[in-house]
User: Fold these one by one.
Assistant:
Number 1:
Amino acid sequence: MNNRISSVVDIIRTHGVQRSDQVALIEGTNSQTWGQLYSRSMQVANGLRAAGVGSQDRVAFLDKNSIEHFEVFYGCALINAVAVDVNWRLAPSEVEFIVNDAQVQVFVVHSDFVSVVEAIRSNLTHVSTVLVINGDGQFTNYNDWVSSQSANDPGVVSKPDDVAFQLYSSGTTGRPKGVMLTNTNFLSLMPHAVDVWHFNADAINLAAMPLFHIGGGGWATAGQYTGCTTIVLREVNPAEVVRLIGAHKITHAFLVPAVIQFMLAVPDVASSNFSSLQLIMYGASPISEEVLVRAIETFGPIFGQAYGLTETTGSVTDLPPHDHDPIGSKKHLLRSCGKAIASVELRIVDTATALDMPVGEVGEIWCRSAQVMKGYWNDPAATAESIMPDGWFKSGDAGYMDADGYVYIHDRVKDMIVSGGENVYPAEVENILMAHPAVADAAVIGVPHERWGETAKAIIVKKQGIEVSEQELIAYCVERLAKFKCPTSVVWVDALPRNPTGKILKKDLRAPYWVGMERQVN
């Protein structure tokens, strides 16, 4: 463990001085040493302070993966403010909700997304400053703004319970929720990152997944805790991942199974050099045995699986490489997401009685750990619903545990869909569909999809006398929601099945699409 680092801001203060000449970040042809990143972050910090940002205030960031993400992230940390990375795939109205909900004063945006800001600028309730990366128009240019600030460390100290990350997860009720992750939450995972994932200062870590996700931003920061070099990939591109591994001798990466599958189809993958790889972690969905066999043959026996949530600061289980044995006696473990990591307690709970389920019986996965979030920003009711008074967090995922402590995900207690690693809550999509003049009733379910694991399917009751086509309804959603949330197919029914209290019976709707599948998630 790195005893000098007791909060996220200590990462930049420690390595910015002690490894000032070591390369911290590489994005395309651009690179920054730890010293340069520290200097830029101090300039961002002083600029934010001058713009009125105080301790624990939120700053929004809207861009694909970039070096600027880290400048803003550590710039915020240096004054104990909180960077809120916004999912760049969201529709303008969704971005507006998050920026207003977080009461953001300074909004940093890449020029690729200026049109989003222009569409919502008059509705932003707290934003006083908009900074545009590569900007040349009506808003302040980010680079000019940074360059005009002094490079002195403001010297602000962060407390263990201060929020270090605020990531927005899709909402069960149709609105995203701000997940507050503290310094303690993050640092509680670091012994695992060092002892099990073997991150160290010599590692070359790939940040390929979106930095607005815990699997992107959290993973990158875990590597930076140890002072390693991070290769930043602006957008996931399987061919580019294959190239970068050889070009930079990458040792560590986190990828979703769909990306690993696409990498196997890259034309020159068989002749590429992957000898530097020490660990590829995957998560968000299981990997098929066929893909895993080919992946081990191609990349080596370096795969680990993790299960976790934004609310648990990422990984709470680990299935290490030595448990990935597709042809031996451990083959059944490939359906597992591993055992609880050292800092985590897990239970399988009967939601009706709150009692533990017997070994092998399905219940809700509950977790207790110092990694469990502080709560949902400005939503004490949702926080109280998720975290029990004694600290147990209800995951919303259903699974069982075998006699050896391996956890198997079986289903979701909540109706959430995971499509290509992105969480989709049906309520959010249903709210949009119900506003269409031709829709009398709507339900959204996850159905199997070969490429993305699952996608959303809309089951619609039409209003009498109003016609609408499948394509029109999907297009209506695409205008109002991030595309990954939108239905990829629509079916029409006369009525939706409901229980006596009026709740739609989603399990009944899902059942025909999952016939013959071992579990009800993909």
Number 2:
Amino acid sequence: MTKSVKKRNRILILGGGFAGVYTAMYLDKLLRSEPDVEIALVSRENYFVFQPMLAEVISGNIGLLDTVSPIHRLVPRCRLYIREIESIDLLERTVTLGPGFWPQSLVLEFEHLVLALGTVTDFRGITGLHQHALPFKNLADAVRLRNHLIHVLNEAEIEPDPERRQQLLTFVVAGGGFSGVEVCAELNDFVRQMAKQCRGFSPADIRVVLVHSGKQILEREVGPKLSAYAQKLLQRRGVELCLENRLKTATPDAAILSSGVRIPTKTLVSTVPSFPNPLIDTLDVKKEGGRIVVDGHLEVIGSENIWALGDTARVPNAADNEHCPPTAQHAIRQAKTLAHNIAARIHGREPIVFRFPGLGKMGSLGHHSAVAELFNRIHISGFPAWVLWRTVYWWKLPGFDRKLKVGFSWLLDFLIPPETVQLRIDGGSALGQLHFEPGEIVFRKGDRGDSLYIILCGEAEVIRESEPTENSTSAGENVVRLATLVAGEYFGEIALLKQKTRSATVRCTKSLDLLALPQGQFQALTTNLPELKNSFELVMDRRMKRDADANHG
């Protein structure tokens, strides 16, 4: 069943980022005296994230909620829909939203539609990244990464195996743009500072690697002088730069680069790639490079009262006859122009053309350092750039209360060390996907049985490794292959049913994608579905007999 909400004079804004929220804010001011016009905004969250400061959440320089502002407080008159968008129908002029507490879609009609859907993290084409890389795009990602960093450092403190400890202490960040560099800088500062409080290893044991496909980091963002400065500063602070390289794949135990280099790690952060929202592909409008083509008034070409801006749109800039880069400062100015033009359309006035020359670019390098390029001719680096970076973004924070909180957080940062509390906010173990490359071990004999594995594609072998003898000439002589497993088969049930450690080793032979069903969910299934348990036990008995025969052989 689908519920429909009708209102003729509705301005419907899709997206809760800079472009969407600032459009709503400007419309709220311009149309305050228009009671018949409803401003509605659809967002996945009820808050707006001030993205430029998100990396500071990692190090704890600002609080977890200091970068977010409730949308209803920024736009009091706005009708807020916290739903997923299922579809957009430009001909019928409706947007269908996903269900809330009841399994019913919600259809909203509109007079004006503003497309500000932004971008999404998309790991298509890079195997293993979806399963094993930590994205960094929103507040949940920042909190998850911070928790993960604290967890791996705590584990490294008690890990007796030097090789595994080094793997835990290795951190890989992919992407040499502003996002990747800022995340890498904050991560590097945080883990090295925390390492001073840990036993069993020191800051010198920390390894942070930044992978970038270009010859220099920030090569597209700032000039070569600032790019070189940023590069030297990060290297001086212990960051390894792996340039002219890119991620090829990821596994639970390593980041594998296009050059063939394998970096053993339990922490891989990816700030690339980012693509326009997939909903854009469903719209029958002119697009270039995946973005919607708009005119100088920010109206979608060929579609009346359909508007687009921000990362979603390919916006021409009358100031330089170029197209706008996907930056927050351009999105905010586009929002102001678009709001003016919608109000002008409602009141029968002439629209204006978007024109904004850009003020410059800034990026933090962590620990009181930054780079800034102003008006394409003024270059600042180091501490002065960091002061400018903080001042500008503090001033741009929406809401006086947010400015106050962030200001106090920065002040306390000089006096009190950052908190290293790990917040357990996930819902526990869930069905997950894993990717392995040939030669990698899924689990070893003697490991704890924590999951049942289902093969989606690829191939693995079940092996038993015996202790080497005096006559052994290579490790391979002591390996007995018990079985080959292919797509559609499962394994790992013996340890779960018998509640014991793994009885054999499973090794990937062809690139392997698995579904991992955690122990708790496996037990819930087998407890409540006796026939399923019987099926697992029959397979287990057959495999145990096979293993026994192999041992006798």
Number 3:
Amino acid sequence: MTTVGKFALADLEKTNHLLSNIKVTVESAFYGNNVKMIPDLAFAYNLAKQSPNVTVTDLPVAHTEDLGLPADARVLVSNDGKVFGRTAQARRILGQPGIDNNYYAGILREAVFTGQKKTFYHGQAVVGLSKDFSVKAHLLLAEGYENNLYSWLLNFQIFTPEAKELYEQSPALNEDDLYIYANPDWSHPDFPNGLALFDPVHNVAAILGLRYFGELKKATLTLAWATAHRNGFVACHGGMKQYDLGDKKFTMAAFGLSGSGKSTITLAESKQDFPVKILHDDAFIISEKTGATTALEPSYFDKTQDYPATSSAIDYFLTVQNVGVTLDDTGRKVIVTEDIRNGNGRTVKSRYLTPNRVDFLPEKIDAVFWIMKDDALPPVVKINDPDLATVFGVTLATKRSTAENVIGQNLDQLVMEPFANPFRSYPLGEDYQTFKELFAQGVDCYILNTGFFNGNKVTPQHTLGAIDLIIQGKADFVDFGPIEKLEYLPIEGHPVDFSDKEYLNKIKQRLVDRLAFINEKSTEKEGYDALPKEVNEQMENLILDLAQKLAD
């Protein structure tokens, strides 16, 4: 629960630490004569339904009464143009080295001024779905993008009387509400790829010249994660689930970028038919004090290509972006789920997709799984050292996906994204310490390679089968020959040959790549993301040990 935004005038001076020129510029825009408030979800649906850039399909929405939608609500489709993913190059975070606050404040003032000629819609939601953590968020979005506004209110929890009650029961934080200003029609010659401007300390963002709905979702989460981080929580871009084994429970988190298999791993049922509770597949936080976890969103935002046209999951689609529409054999307008029109067709799905969905898990986490696409690693590796577990989290190796508008990069190139979270708005070293503490408290750590190993694809069946063995304590790990404190799980079809020097050299090269990444983090942005010396030392020692084994 945030506490500012409803202070008495006499208390204004007490809140000055929560104000900035960026924050005041954005929040002021919410109160203009050109702003229309969205009272409820039904209103937002009807607004989107009538928008010129929306296609109303003949696919009915399930659980309309539970969601607060009209009984005859249909799945709505809106499509963007050339760009259909997030644009990392557009992000600017105030407070980081090289980011001139005064320059961007001027850009923002001009953007808000010119935007006053347009109608904007104001939607309100809560982020954080438990009494442990709940903050209020505001979105101001330009007319013409009603489906994105509706999707945002579906993706997060619209501010209903029930949400208000939860929000008021959560701890009061010395924070302001989250404010996001968005005008996709904005343009500026200095920002051909748009501008996503963040002042995370003051809980405010401006998303300019960017149409993709995912920009609004991740902007909101960027601010919410930063708020949670400042208030005693570990910010997590990943999936969380819990297995009920009868005599005990097993709670696990899977961290990976979009397209890594994170949602597949999180939403899958147990092959052994153990009851499963799903917290979320994308965004949650862990209390540093109690270890309990809270989901930040009620809905899911996933790729449509994962679901064939006959999939029952389509019954739970609410809005869809960047997909085709066609007529079925009865003349109904239906969606083309495959990525034919473009890559990264996306849908907002309701929480009712998973009947075993929960918003809060009081039990402490048992295991973390880093999802990677590093072909030097077998399908499943266990790390038996808290420091090393954190180091591999810092150097989580994977590949970009079509969820991102990648400029000047190869999608097949192996990249490293610390803790699979490109939305961090505070120094990386702070995340390093919070995750290290998790592992020091006894949380187990595994690496799941969901890419290729020895030229063979690691299938979801391999990964999910291995997880089932791990949660039951039946996984027979063996020593990972060249590196102490690592073990791997033998899996049929993916043999590991430590006598193969070519393979050992590949492992060594991946470690060298990780060390180079760590060193790069220590020097870029004037050392803003520098890591403790122990991180370098861990990786250097691994490389030296492996070099010695190769020399023997």
Number 4:
Amino acid sequence: MTTEAPDSPPTVRQVPTERTFHGDTVTDEYSWLADKENPETIAYLEAENAWTAKATAHLEDLRTTLFDEIKRRTLETDLSVPSRRGGYWYYTRTEEGKQYGIQCRTAVRPGETDPPAIDAPDAGVPGEEVLLDGNVLAEGKEFLALGTFDVTPDGTRLAYSTDFAGDERFTLRVKDLTTGEALADEVPSTFYGSAWSADGSTLFYLTVDDAWRPYRVWRHTLGTPASEDVVVYEESDERFWVGVELSRSEKFILIDVHSKVTSEVRVIPSDVPTAEPVVIAPRRQGVEYTVEHHGHRFLILHNDNAEDFALSYTSADAPGDWVELIPHQPGTRLESVDAFHRHVVLSVRTDGLTGLRVLGDGSTDTYDMAFPEPLYSVGLAGNPEYDTTSVRIAYTSMVTPDSVYDVDLVTRQMTLRKQRPVLGGYRPEDYQQFREWAVADDGTKVPISIVARTGVPRDGTAPLVLYGYGSYETSIDPYFSIPRLSLLDRGVVFAIAHVRGGGEMGRRWYEQGKMLAKKNTFTDFVACAQALVKASWTTGDRLVARGGSAGGLLMGAVANLAPEDFAGIVAEVPFVDPLTSILDPSLPLTVIEWEEWGNPLESPEVYAYMKSYSPYENVGKLRYPRILAVTSLNDTRVLYHEPAKWIARLRAVAPDGRYLLKTEMGAGHSGPSGRYDSWKEEAFVNAWVLEVLGRAGA
């Protein structure tokens, strides 16, 4: 590679390498960029960063303005609504000028049933005990992420784990909350998740294999060296991930083993942590189920002959046959089940909207919670307490800031505990949300959620940002965003394309956007863009597409599929070289991903299909829109070299385009970890978007 002064984009050395699969030979000129230890690779990424800084230097004032707008609208010293567990109220607070949250608790006072009301967040909560201060942990570090934060049932100890690189390899530690001292117990290279035994003497945790797959559950006895820890469960099938948690009832340790399409759950009594795990139901290919303990039974949410899932139960004493509670209802996706002493709450999805259904204990009727807006998102929020007759829910919409309610499950009364403050005089009535429908190539109707400043013209003159994801049955539901207000107030419309591959319209919606139907995700997005133009929301030269991770694959695919429909594309940590990655089982996550994308190593059909849509493989001599790719050097989910190679090939094959690559050199998949750094990153992206849309001076 040779690096020119940042008066022009850097050039990158081409080293053609060939690979042959199923009789097909392809050449990759930039595969050497995958060598993270090569100084030339780092030099190239830094040269790209220098060029991006040079090419966007004129936006510095706008970036500062956007950052200041986010900051001015955010209550920087704030705290979450305290949540009760046992004898304490737990909450997180932030302080002005500090990057990270502070985890705290205060004791429940005699007779206290409601969370303590906090009228002045900067004054704190009476009797506050700081459990973990992220700002202290991050001193001298560029990055901080917590992998687990887990207090013993009796509230005397805290297990927590930290990652200071962004590679999601965590060091597990234990703190004595009665003395404030760190215990000698320490385990490196752990994964997310943990579970305590009933008496707090034993801690279960996870480790990963060389492919970054959590596959072992370990049992650690406090006060003993990590070298004496015992493997409780090891999963040998490389398609499966393992998770571990304590049930809400605190009666069982749950070991969840799951692939993309199959699952199996084992349980250990939390008061007998050395017991052998008991299988609830042996795995059967294609059958997924989750388990929730509820008194004498285990509730089982499953898809056995139930595409959108059904609810059954089995004995907690001797798990065996399943007895049906809620039958399968096509079109109503049962997404999760949460059990409380006298109630069960189902999270459901119907017609593209989330909902909550309450099942009583016989003294109350089954009912669905009602919400006033036509577009919204709702779900349970935490709820660690089992013996309760109220639950906490989180509610938001495109115009309603994040809101926390407590709901009495018997009287059905909803009490607003907090709505996220938006400073500067925000008024929901100044904005409107809409639902449009696009018609895909095969006649499928695809929903689009839209928010705009009230009075934005519907004559095609408004600029628009269209966001999409469309993989893993992940739904991008309507949500509120403070940074988005800076776009809306400049006349930009924001829309979410709920394309197939996500879960917005049920399990079939997901099935129709994966494997050998993956192209539906891309054509749906293009159909949404064209529908917005047809409905006079915008025009193609005023439309920017945005997506990240698997949504970044979507961005790369539509860039090749319909470049003329977009003025710009933002691809964040984009999965733009999927064929190369999925062909390499030594890479993190690859084997697990075969049930999402197919196995191109074994199937010529899958190989040909993936090659036909892979953004990197299909870069052509096209007139591409402007492209901004953002990635992170330490990302273990989508490796940095995918967007690096993509931008290099775009420059070589279609040199008339304007392409930028920005690499965070000390972060992971989610980008910068501190909130101010995240705001700066969002301001950078939105400044670029506004320039592309012709609103940089607005």
